[in-house]
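Make up an example, fold above all:
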Amino acid sequence: MLPLLACETDRAFYDYEAKHDQGLRRETCPAALPEDVEQRVMETALRVHRLIGAHGVSRVDFLVCSDGRSLVLEVNTVPGLSEHGNLATMAAAAGVSYVELIKRVLDTAFTKVSYVP
């Protein structure tokens, strides 16, 4: 698992503008969360990944409330692979280069059993 990435904005919502304008958001990786919240988010992300039958790399997005509650927003079963995207930022925080990240993602393409309806 990769370190958590926190995206925050002073806007009312983390909207399209905040997502695409670096001046409207702050990213912290690894996220500065209490250890128990971080652990619970990571465990939940892994559980969600497995529950939906995801394979390889996925990114589970959460809303973490000020009281520590964490809500799953969505699962990205094909997260963006741009060199400056969320997944690459998380990998870099774990000491994984972009080239190595792409190699690892590609390696998972050959480990999935064939689809059986």
Observations:
- The first helix runs from residue 16 to 20.
- The chain has a mean pLDDT of 91.
- Residues 34-108 form a domain with the D-amino Acid Aminotransferase; Chain A, domain 1 fold (CATH 3.30.470.20).
- The longest strand covers residues 70-76.
